Integrase arm-type DNA-binding domain-containing protein (Methylobacterium marchantiae), 522 residues
Amino acid sequence: MAASRGTYARERARLTAEHLKKARRMIDSGTVPGRGIDFCDDAFPGLVLRVTPAAGNWILKLRMSTLRLGDMASVSVAAAREAAARARLDVKDGRDPRQDVAVYAHAMVTTGGDHETSADAAWPVEVERQSDEDRRRHGPWEWRDLVDLFLEEKRPDLDPGYFPAYASYLRHKAFDRIARRPVREVTATDLQGIRNEIIAANSRSAAARAVRQGREMLDWAWSNHSGVSGMAKATEKWPLWRDQWTIRYKPGKRRHAPEIDELARTLAVAERYRTLGQTEHATAPGTLAMLWFTVLTGQRTGAVAETARLDVAPIPEDAGVPGPGWRAVTWSAGVMKEDRPFVLPLPPGAWYVIDRVLAEDPDRETNRWLFPSIRGDGHVGQGALNALLYRLRGKKVTGSTVTARPLVDYFGIHGIRPWTLHDVRRAITTFLSDHRLGGAASAILDHEAGVTEDERDRRSAVTRLHYDRSQRIPLKSEGMALWVDAVLEAYENERAALAALPAPVTRERTKRGPGRAQPTAP
């Protein structure tokens, strides 16, 4: 007899009918050791005949669970192996095998051990597998169908730039386990397990997004397609997700407004360390210029990325700017957050530094975009700036994942607190409000301003009604001049301080031979 393993003794062999007889004799004679004994089948790994003092049952051990296949009195060794194989196929296809196995075990008892009839009841033969198109049209849907059809319905309501991020939560790899499972067979246990897996792999906030969007998706299908989706014939009481698929999460509010010297130091550091690693490409002129523009104007990166060269033109003094050399950047209706045109006056100093960086791009004049990409004739993506800031902090961005890697944390070395591009808007608002120009910040950033006693700080309902007829150029210019001068002054101070440090050492890039990498240069 094998040695005890936990609460069950254990014996491994290629199981035959003799093992069933032996198990029966042990039960009848009261010689079952301890709590019981497991006869493990060498012919089918995971298949076990578990014998206790009271009974013998076939079980199948899976990676995440254990299934009962039936009583040894009604299920032969060959039948147990076939049932185990069919259950494994269910798991492989993304189906929950428990219901089929339960049907099989019950049928074996009621038919007196008729394996063929019981197997047909539990696993009916599919004469012809449905195509994806037929399944989605006539049902019942699999989970992957639900996701694809819901996203197709949702796409027109979402910003094109945001849609991939929205879809990524419903297509998280944690959902792969149920992708091919009929929606009606998905259980609360499945959904809760997926939620927990996303928390472990990513974060609680990511799981909260997946749960919120998933609940919306299931509500949509339940309300509009309960028949064709198969949800009306669900095996569990539905809609189970409304009270059994939840997560406690409250997003924190960011209150960080970076100081002007931190923003200016970031610009100086980004210029000084254009190449951040031996395998990194140097920061492209379009990306660096876009970082400058964002810090100097506080505009949303989506609109900034889509700025064309023809959108920038001189603006006459009689339009309300305080002197010559000013430029006007114009975004058409639909590019900004609201569906109306928006004009921002740009001081000469701001345009000078942006133009200086862009002059490094040899293809500048042939690309229609103000911030040209180094790849093709497109523009710099709005995600490029986030990636640049992460790299300056010694982190790597792969898709939607940010990971640490052995690069230098230039933010930490130079005493820069981590900040996001949206934080620039908060910094501008704080700075101009401290100078009694909160109304200018509101006009520059296209925000509603609160009511104050200063007329320049007010944006009343009447002003709002006249907004489409007046871009409030004088007010914007006053705020832009003050902010840009402060940033440029701080930048010169930070650049001078960095110049006093030893020059950065740039390692030679590895030369790659055909089919393999050469040793790294010392």
Observations:
- The CA atoms of residues 252 and 503 lie 40 Å apart.
- Residues 473-499 form the longest helix (27 residues).
